[in-house]
Amino acid sequence: MSHRTFSVSRPRNAAAVLLLVLLATPPAAARGRYYNHSGSIETSHPDWLSWMPGSASLASLSLPGTHDSMAFTSTGGDLTQTQSLSLRAQLDAGLRALDIRCRHIGDRFAIHHGVVYLNANFDDVLTTTTQFLRDHPGETILMRVKEEHTPDGNSRSFQQTFEWYRNQPAYSPYVWRGTHVPTLGEVRGKIVILDNFGGGAYGVTWGSLALQDDWTVSTIFDIDNKWDKVRDHLGRTNAGAPPTLYVNFLSGSSVAAFPNVVAGGDGMAIRGVNDYAIDHLVGGNVQRAGVLMMDFPGAGLIDAILALNYRLLPSASILPGDFGTAFRNISYTLGGDAQARWYGIHAFLQNAAPGRLWHALALKGSWAGWMHTDGSYVQSDTMDDYTHLAFTSRTVTSAVSNGFLGSFVNSQLGAFSGGTGDRAAQLHGRVSSRFPFQLWSVVVKKSPGGLSNWAYSDYGTGYKATQGDYTYAVQAYSAADGVYLYEHGQFEGNILHLTSGVGFLGDLGFDDILSSVRILGPYRATLCEHPSRTGRCLSTTQSVGDINSVAGGPWNDQVSSAGIDFVGVR
């Protein structure tokens, strides 16, 4: 994981200041981000549904799930094992849809995969899921219940035994009794049964689902064909009727293509379904994925599905902290040079969390950044010597012109010393001191530069300069509300930011040099030719690029005092 050194303060609008310096990190395996065959996993989302609006239908969500969820041991060998995580570990990782296959034997349910008993019973499943819901009451779990293998030694029907389990005092409060596709608010803290045994009497009927479960993959050379079916159903889900619950099985197997290879490929030339799926999801091709039932899902694949739900949050809200986990894990799917990686970051962010002003960067080698954020911030591990990061800002409005910013930065370059971190801190300190009315990000890159080595969003006012081995990129955004006075027309040159009146602009070095004015927010500026608001005056609530265009002039280089008033609700 990439190391970060933080210097955090709380300037205006609760913006955070971050100092980021790249340090060497060990390489990490990309394959583990879509395929996982170990007893642990590099992601954790035990409460992610608690962030989602209660009004959201379960059909509107993108829910990662597991096929044959209890087949997480080697009982039966590679042909029957479909998972590597225990049931509780699956839930803690963020998986919210389970596939539970029950053999009816002795008036109880034994958990099977085909003929293979998985050394677990339905009590084990319900005990684990209800304990999870007690620990995380904002969550819900979809549970497909299906009769598996041949019944034996029973005195009652499968449905009656299910009712017996459901009515146990330890489980009954956690099993939802409805049969329609509910909203999340209806079923927080509950198990929603996908009824594949009772015709819909015990939950959402399996027959009502829009389903893709073509599980036969005859040989490993048919994995591409299985992916085509998954991808086509993702397209149907994305464009489908909002009330319909879509379920899509990524799993497949045969005696010539075991589940682990269908999911993860052979580690060489054959790609697995999970590999195709993560690229498709991260690439911004899907906005609603439905319920995806998977074998051996990796951290990145889980997170790529889960991250689609953040688009349901208001765009003005700061994203929950576990969005950073998702960003870190999906970054392993990115490849190419810095420019290609930037496009990948941008596509993912705009799809998963649209409506926000994202600043994205892809940087290779020796670099450092010092930046204000007044929104969400995410950063990847270092991979192939690249680091990806992104943050949001309140606006991308800058009050400083490119030309004036460039002049200021060029005047400072000779004073910087040290490494990339020192230089980033020095430049950020100087632009923030000179122009304290807005936020700044500074990235310093040691050579080599170019789009193969760094790429970043370019909003509004920015400047880039190279001196010696170092290139400096400065970006301005989130200008504060107020009245801005400029010495030249079209908002160029020296600048003065006001939020209250000034009896004599000469006290601030701005007497008789005003040529243009910018208004941000609910302000009225009254500008007068003599001190103490005497003589000829003009008033404006709009920005004016050429002050002489206002009637009653000439006004250019004629103003000596300013009155500032609120004209609305801030």
From TrEMBL:
Q: Which SUPFAM superfamilies match?
A: gamma-Crystallin-like, PLC-like phosphodiesterases
Q: Which reaction does it catalyse?
A: a 1,2-diacyl-sn-glycero-3-phospho-(1D-myo-inositol) = 1D-myo-inositol 1,2-cyclic phosphate + a 1,2-diacyl-sn-glycerol
EC number(s) given by UniProt: 4.6.1.13
The UniProt keyword set, sorted, is: Signal
Q: Where is the Phosphatidylinositol-specific phospholipase C X domain?
A: 55-196
| Superkingdom of the organism of origin | Bacteria
Q: Which residues form the signal peptide?
A: 1-30
Q: Which PROSITE patterns match?
A: PIPLC_X_DOMAIN
Please give a single GO biological process term from the UniProt record.
lipid metabolic process
The broad enzyme category this protein falls into is lyase
Q: Which CDD domains match?
A: PI-PLCc_BcPLC_like
Q: Tell me which InterPro entries the record gives.
A: G_crystallin-like, PI-PLC_domain, PLC-like_Pdiesterase_TIM-brl, PLipase_C_PInositol-sp_X_dom
An example molecular function term from Gene Ontology annotations: phosphoric diester hydrolase activity
Q: What PANTHER family does the record tag this protein with?
A: PTHR13593, SI:DKEY-266F7.9
Name of the protein in question: 1-phosphatidylinositol phosphodiesterase
Species assigned in the record: Corallococcus sicarius
